[in-house]
Amino acid sequence: MLTGKQKRYLRSEAHHLKPIFQVGKDGVNENMIEQMKEALEKRELIKVSVLQNCLEDKDDVAVKLAEGTEAEIVQIIGNNIVLYKESEENKHIQLP
Asked: Which keywords belong to this entry (predicted)?
């Protein structure tokens, strides 16, 4: 689990990121989760956009993505979700 200080740091790091995934009306699926796992391994921190036509609640989407990718939810702000997972080979974020 992330501490408050670590989440604050990750939020500041994620501020300038653009969402690299979008969750639409089909919701969360296995293919999307696999692609996110790969992206998290490369980047450690990703931003996901929940589109207006998504039938699921953004909080439910965030929980499904976090469980599927074994990542931490850093923040849900507006329709964006920020996820963090420590990389095994490409560590570049030093948590405080």
From this structure: RNA-binding
Using a 10 angstrom Cβ sphere, with 0-12 exposed, 13-18 middle and 19 or more buried, the burial of residue 80 is: middle
pTM of full prediction above 0.90: yes
Instruction: Give the CATH number for residue 58.
Output: 3.30.110.60
Question: Residue 22 pLDDT more than 90?
Answer: yes
Distance (Å, whole) CA 8 – CA 24: 28
Structural domain includes residue 35: yes
* Strand, helix or coil for residue 72: strand
pLDDT at 17: 95
